[in-house]
Write a structure and sequence with these properties.
Largest sheet: 9 strands, mixed
Radius of gyration: 25 Å
Shape: globular
Strand content: 25-35%
Oligomer: single chain
Mean pLDDT: 85
Number of helices: 16
Length: 652
């Protein structure tokens, strides 16, 4: 258990909470400790209530709460900006003392001067926020939060920009299927994603996540769903039992539950009751109802949340039947989920509320393929992300990006599509929805809730992330504008300026340093190249983007090189090259470093490469005295091109 995190949690509460914990030692788990237990109990579900109480009491004593109270923080007086019809159920905000007038300890960081979109219905849109360590200390008016500013506080003036919770992607494959954890994480951070659910983790991956987290490489909070079947429905067996339910595998890596595929889309046909595309036969569910029910019952009995891929209405109906048999009228306390929900009939939409299941839905529409030959069945029941929520007011509905398989990789562009059903490509082109598609969306408030509080609920992490409230983790994004108030047609132009996880800036957009507290770039360097195609200069390898047209291109056939010069000399520990290559194929690249006035060949990369791959040079020990390096592409079917170059170094 993270003892320091509990002390931080208690340090922002009044003496009343700790006093009540003392009183409840003799009487068992009372309301005050149930609140704390709900936040921290999942760290180790095996702790008894009594042990938890004693542990919390020790945290109170060591945290100083026996003698120090925290001053009141008046919550933002503005009304909630979350529409009353939102499909999320935000967590109960922590209790704040309102009886003391002492001066609080200074915060580490304060953001002010712009809209603080909390996504908490009690707090609404505030004027300022204070962060201490990894935790939000206070949210309120600028005047109230001024009391948290001390000599050592970093004050960030947003200058009219906005701050929101980090995007939570309940179902993605970006860390495993986008060139590996490091490459996928860079893309997630650049798009403001702070928490993910990796939705199909096969046996070789948990240890890789543990290694990435242990080394400090993994910043994004990651929930793993361990695959009971592969995408074709093949049973992999209950190997997941080697990792306990809700197990914390490493810092920011936890087991969420078990993943099952019930129909196609990735492999095989989607199980619909009627054909949805001309010339395309309707598929059938992968599994017999009895087999599917047995798998769910086994995982549920062991305490695992179960998420099931079901795109077609036949598959969804069968999965609902299986969950109904397992739950047998009981509440869905583990928040079992159905993923994708591409075809939603009235019957299956209404049953979500009856069973209390958690649906996740796509944001992007098929507007760019509106004339593909969809049948009347598709036009009536497909591509309707708002259908389940509309049929079940109050039901929590979550968004998922399913990246990198569904593009664009951008929560903001997906929010725009959720609301308008307009599709915006990575190149900026737009596709307007036909009339039969246009009415299937949600409001901006509902869409943003689905991408924050709703997805946090789906991951069973809503007590920690998804909204900005005192006591929650400081996971947030700085945006160029407020997503809730900017004109809807301008949503695609809203930019991610900074991504902050646990109070630490993990991504800073070029030129956005003023809104990136504590951010330190990996070094000062300049890129040049043997030649460049117009609009694709070498500077693009340092812009933090691996989407769209943001890549260096030589504009001609190999051989060509790109060179990076340091401002001085550096000690290099690793260099990563994110591949942009069309078409994929066999390549040969040579990497040289310039040390003490001499070029030295340190690595030759040979093999098949494709866009999204990452070539890594990792010297056996840090190499000092490096003033430049050069990557020369000797052989390639495409022009020499790179999305990004990333350098881990220290100046000398």
């Amino acid at each position: 258990m993270d003892y320091s995190r509990i002390k931080r949690f208690l340090s922002i509460r009044s003496t009343a909470l700790c006093d009540r914990i003392r009183k409840e030692i003799e009487s068992g788990l009372g309301p005050a400790t149930r609140r704390v237990g709900a936040t921290f109990g999942n760290v180790n579900g095996r702790l008894s209530a009594t042990v938890l109480l004693i542990f919390l009491l020790g945290a109170c004593d060591e945290g100083g709460n026996a003698t120090t109270s925290i001053p009141p923080v008046k919550v933002a007086s503005t009304a909630s900006t979350v529409d009353s019809t939102t499909t999320t159920e935000p967590p109960t905000p922590p209790t704040i003392s309102t009886t003391t007038t002492s001066v609080p300890d200074p915060a580490d960081v304060v953001f002010r001067g712009g809209d603080i979109v909390t996504m908490d219905p009690e707090l609404g849109t505030a004027e300022a926020i204070a962060i201490t360590g990894e935790v939000i200390a206070a949210v309120g008016t600028a005047e109230e939060i001024e009391r948290y500013v001390g000599p050592g506080t970093t004050v960030v003036d947003l200058g009219g920009r906005a701050l929101s919770p980090g995007f939570v992607d309940a179902h993605t494959h970006i860390l495993t299927d986008m060139g590996g954890i490091a490459a996928g994480q860079r893309l997630a951070l650049a798009n403001g994603i702070t928490s993910v659910g990796d939705a199909s983790v096969e046996p070789e991956w948990p240890e890789q996540f543990i290694e990435a987290a242990t080394s400090g490489e993994l910043a994004v909070r990651t929930t793993l769903y361990l695959a009971r079947t592969d995408p074709c429905g093949e049973d992999l067996g209950p190997w997941y039992v080697a990792y306990g339910p809700d197990a914390i595998l490493a810092e920011r890596v936890r087991v969420g539950g078990v993943k099952i595929f019930s129909d196609g889309g990735v492999c095989g046909a989607i199980a619909t009751s009627e054909p949805f595309l001309e010339g395309y036969e309707a598929g059938a569910p992968y599994h017999d109802l009895g087999v599917l029910t047995a798998w769910i019952r086994e995982a549920n009995a062991a305490g695992y949340q179960v998420i099931i891929h079901a795109q077609g209405d036949r598959a969804i109906a069968e999965v609902q039947d299986a969950f109904a048999a397992v739950l047998d009228g009981r509440s869905n306390t583990l928040r079992h989920r159905i993923e994708h929900n591409a075809f939603v009939t009235e019957a299956i939409a209404g049953r979500y509320g009856e069973l209390g299941l958690v649906p996740t839905v796509f944001g992007i529409s098929e507007a760019c393929r509106a004339d593909l030959g969809w049948t009347d069945f598709y036009k009536e029941y497909g591509d309707r992300p708002g259908a389940i929520g509309a049929a079940n007011p109050g039901l929590v509905v979550a968004w998922h990006g399913d990246d990198p398989w569904m593009t664009p990789i951008s929560p903001i562009l997906e929010l725009f599509s959720l609301v308008t059903r307009v599709t915006v490509g990575e190149d900026g082109t737009t596709c307007e929805p036909p009339d039969w598609m246009a009415g299937g969306g949600v409001s901006v408030e509902q869409g943003l809730a689905m991408m924050t509080t709703g997805s946090a609920y789906a991951l069973r992490q809503d007590q920690l992330v998804g909204s900005l409230a005192p006591g929650k983790l400081a996971d947030l994004v700085v945006l160029s504008d407020n997503l809730l108030t900017v004109p809807i047609d301008q949503l695609p132009s809203v930019e991610i300026l900074a991504t902050v996880i646990g109070g630490t800036t993990e991504y800073c957009a070029p030129g956005a340093d003023a809104w990136c507290p504590g951010y330190t770039a990996s070094g000062s360097f300049e890129a040049s190249a043997s030649r460049s195609r117009e609009g694709h200069g070498p500077e693009l390898v340092f812009d933090g983007s691996v989407i769209g047209e943001s890549f260096w291109s030589s504009g001609g056939d190999a051989p060509d090189w790109i060179k990076v010069d340091f401002a001085g000399s550096a000690k290099v520990t690793e260099v990563r090259f994110v591949v942009y290559q069309n078409p994929p194929g066999e390549t040969v690249h040579e990497l040289e470093v310039f040390v003490d006035g001499t070029w030295n060949l340190v690595e030759t990369f040979r093999g098949t490469t494709a866009t999204g791959d990452v070539l890594i040079w990792h010297p056996a020990s840090p190499l000092a005295g490096v003033s430049a390096f050069r990557m020369t592409t000797l052989e390639s079917l495409s022009w020499p091109e790179w999305f990004e170059i990333e350098i881990d170094s220290a100046g000398e």
